[in-house]
Amino acid sequence: MGTLLLDPIAFSIGGLKVHWYGLILGSAALVGLLLAVWEGKRFRIPQEFFMDLLLLGVPSAIIAARIYYVAFMWDDYKNNFWDVFKIWNGGIAIYGALIGAIICAVIFVRRRGYNFWRIADICAPGLIIGQMIGRWGNFVNQEAYGGPTTESFLRENLHLPSFIVNQMNVQGTFHHPTFLYESLWNLVGLFLLLILRRQKFLRSGELFASYFIWYSIGRFFIEALRTDSLAFQGAAWLASFVNGLWSPMTWLGFELGYLAPSYGNVRISQLLAIGIVIAAVIFIIVRRRTVSDLPYYSDPIISTKVAAAGVPGVTASAEPEKAEPVKPMETTVEEQPEVPEEKKE
């Protein structure tokens, strides 16, 4: 059977070719922005703040994601240096993108006088919906897929439509649509985050941590299906430990994606996922036990820069101002009108 491919070029303007990959990533960023702006209105944060954050965060994320990927695949780029800049051909790492975006956000948010964790909480659903949409760029580019499978598994077991099944036919061999698995996992995660952020017990920073926990759990199990994972040669016990954690997937009929023994035996994304889940859980527990005045998610968000500017009715406190109690009027004997003697009867 021949391979049926989607054209990665959406359209051309003269000699400029516009790739679906770029359009999909741009759409993902836009939808994430709209979701953050929508939630930001509840806290009276201007939409320009999130637009500026996006304009700085997206380039930072792309650059860091590319650096992360190229660093681990340097042998493929050292003799073709200009290929490093061809991101439209794919080859960016999501964890690298998160590192770049977080570094940019920490600097930007603090310069605007906001608490980083409060803004990160607002942006968490936007991040996961952006990743959910962005994975379809891998689908068009026919990359980041899993190991070999059968057409019947895709059509009859997973009931996937033909346009997905056909695109998973890579040079005559069908592969697991790991982009779809991760996109659906993120869709469920989006609904969970939207529900969680309305719960009264949620504290500052915990929605952001929950996003990392959910995404990393899914990424750990999905990553092992892929055959293009970034990997390194680790100790045998480490590889055995990671594969042991993943082994429940075999009960569902999945198999580990092939990695050349000479390339590595431990997938970097899997190891990072384990570390992130542990770190996020510790983060939540330690902050709750050590920070006595930890604000709730629903508490007001005030920029210290706005408060310092002397805007009426705004203080640097995270709590709304309380009005002074009104004192009851007192009437003294001297203030009472004197009653004439002839009327005292």
From TrEMBL:
So, what pathway does this thing act in?
Answer: Protein modification; lipoprotein biosynthesis (diacylglyceryl transfer)
What name does this protein carry?
Phosphatidylglycerol--prolipoprotein diacylglyceryl transferase
Please give the biological process terms from Gene Ontology that the record holds.
lipoprotein biosynthetic process
Locate the region Disordered: 316-345
EC numbers listed for it are: 2.5.1.145
Enzyme class, top EC level, equals transferase
Q: Which gene encodes it?
A: lgt
Q: Does the keyword Transmembrane apply?
A: yes
State the Gene Ontology terms under molecular function.
phosphatidylglycerol-prolipoprotein diacylglyceryl transferase activity
Q: Pfam families given for it? A: LGT (PF01790)
Regarding the membrane, this protein is recorded as:
Multi-pass membrane protein
The family database entries (HAMAP family) matched by this protein are listed as: Lgt
The family assignment reads: Belongs to the Lgt family.
Name the source organism: Paenibacillus mellifer
Locate the residues binding a 1,2-diacyl-sn-glycero-3-phospho-(1'-sn-glycerol): 135
User: For this UniProt entry, which segments traverse the membrane?
Assistant: 20-38, 50-72, 92-109, 178-196, 234-254, 266-286
Which compartment or compartments is the protein found in? Cell membrane
What domain of life does the native source organism fall in?
A: Bacteria
Any idea what job this protein has?
Catalyzes the transfer of the diacylglyceryl group from phosphatidylglycerol to the sulfhydryl group of the N-terminal cysteine of a prolipoprotein, the first step in the formation of mature lipoproteins.
Q: Does the keyword Cell cycle apply?
A: no
Coarsely, its chief localization is: membrane
Write out the entry's keywords from A to Z.
Cell membrane, Membrane, Transferase, Transmembrane, Transmembrane helix
